[in-house]
Write a structure and sequence with these properties.
The protein is mainly beta. The protein has a single domain, classed as Sandwich (Jelly Rolls), CATH 2.60.120.10. It is built from two helices and nine strands. It has a six-stranded antiparallel beta sheet with strand order 6-3-8-2-1-9. Strands 5-4-7 form a three-stranded antiparallel beta sheet, with no helix packed on it.
């Protein structure tokens, strides 16, 4: 995994994650990291995207709270909106794009963790520039 010094395993984490996601304006904000999972908030600005990626050894579950956009999974496009969930198995090429007029707000769970514990990327540019972030 590579982040064992930053993993918090001594107590459970509890929060109103839907409310946190609705108020989040950071592209990525890691809320909690354990040995096996990681909870992350994401905000995709109107017309923005996560960017095409593949997580070779990490499953990802995305829970959309607000907004509308598209999930690009392999070669398929599917609409996503608040209330939807998308499960992305390890090794699946994917991207998520917000509609031009509306940001996407979501929380996501990685298993195993994919980012450094405590990571905050205010913008997508910050995330793209952080080359040491991924496991």
């Amino acid at each position: 995994m590579g982040y064992s010094n930053n993993v918090r395993t001594y107590e459970p984490y509890s929060a109103n994650v839907v409310e946190l996601a609705r108020n989040n304006t950071d592209f990525r904000r890691v809320l909690d990291t354990t040995e096996h999972t990681q909870l992350v908030l994401m905000f995709i600005a109107a017309g923005g995207e996560i960017g095409e990626e593949i997580h070779a050894g990490t499953d990802q579950v995305l829970f959309f709270v607000d907004g509308r956009g598209e999930a690009l999974l392999l070669d398929q496009r599917r609409p996503v909106a608040g209330g939807d969930v998308v499960v992305v198995p390890a090794g699946t090429r994917h991207n998520f794009v917000a509609n031009a007029g509306q940001a996407l707000r979501l929380y996501t769970v990685y298993s195993p963790p994919h980012h450094r514990a405590g990571t905050v990327h205010r913008t997508k540019a910050d995330a793209d520039g952080d080359k040491g972030d991924h496991a």
